[in-house]
């Protein structure tokens, strides 16, 4: 049971504003993972940052290709900047290197802000191509390698037959 007068029951919160000019909508940005983390841990952490909003009635949701993500998500409590009296919130989505390395993957951070009604803001970032090899590309490379190997063995066998033929011919001549 909370003794703070802003809370009712199990968490319903009331914020009283002097006028609507105090309401400030969030700025939302997504930051890509560090290359060092991808290299060392084979993981990628995306960071969503919502800043400059008031009041702190906000909900943050991550989506990958339009599907809500709950696994690998960590969202901090919103913090107030004492000088500006506005809040900021960070959330992290941890994914595999393979997910990040697929340029077709689209990562979105949706921020629902409850000010004058509900407004939704979002940040978007796409995966990066070329950070790792796809299964199809790997299979294609493996087949090319096998073909080159078979070709070299065949060429060596032909060369051996040619040299043996020369030796037999030289033996007959002597």
From TrEMBL:
Pfam families: C1-set
Stored SMART domains: IGc1 (SM00407)
All residue ranges annotated as the Ig-like domain in the record: 26-126
Domain of life of the native organism: Eukaryota
TM stretches of this protein: 148-168
Sorted UniProt keywords: Disulfide bond, Immunoglobulin domain, Membrane, Transmembrane, Transmembrane helix
Protein name per UniProt: Ig-like domain-containing protein
């Amino acid at each position: 049971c909370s003794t703070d007068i802003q809370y009712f029951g199990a968490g319903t919160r009331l914020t009283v504003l002097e006028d609507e000019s105090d309401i400030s909508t969030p700025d939302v940005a997504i930051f890509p993972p560090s290359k060092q983390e991808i290299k060392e841990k084979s993981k990628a952490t995306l960071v969503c940052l919502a800043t400059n909003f008031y009041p702190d009635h906000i909900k943050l949701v991550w989506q990958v290709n339009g599907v809500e993500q709950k696994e690998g998500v960590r969202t901090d409590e919103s913090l107030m900047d004492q000088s500006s009296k506005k809040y900021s919130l960070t959330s992290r989505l941890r994914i595999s290197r393979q997910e990040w390395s697929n340029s077709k993957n689209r990562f979105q951070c949706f921020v629902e802000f409850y000010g004058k009604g509900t407004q939704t803001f979002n940040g978007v970032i796409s995966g990066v191509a070329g950070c790792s090899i796809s299964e199809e590309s790997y299979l294609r490379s493996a087949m090319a390698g096998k073909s080159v190997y078979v070709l070299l063995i065949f060429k060596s066998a032909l060369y051996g037959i040619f040299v043996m033929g020369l030796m037999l011919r030289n033996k007959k001549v002597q």
